[in-house]
Amino acid sequence: MSKFYSLLFALLMSTALLAQSPPQSFSYQTVIRDAGFNILANQEVVLRLSILEDEPQGLMAYQEKHVETTSAIGLVNLFIGEGNVSSGSFEDIDWANHTYFLEVAIDFDSDDNFVVMGASQLRSVPYALYAESSGAPGTEGP
Asked: Do the Cβ atoms of 94 and 113 come closer than 8 Å?
């Protein structure tokens, strides 16, 4: 019987030691419209997302593509860092030492002809702000 409890204790401890690392992606949501600003409902589109370093036309640190179908209201939800990688490595982005911009380009007809919709600076998110205030690596936040 003591072997059973020893095994149970070891199993519980090994499960407790499995820590989850932060997600290596972040959420992105947009509404897709055509050139006349009409919502494109229930339509497949290809999005090319580029993370650019230090300025909106800066060096491309990472790029990926997503094939998505818009909702009835033209909405698309995806996770940047989980797409089909075209260039770079999401894990190798030097978040601490550069300002980054997200450039969004859309291929409306799946013909590899992308229209750049613009670029905007990536800002801190609550998860990152919490991590910043949590203290030394491996310590628990407030």
From this structure: no
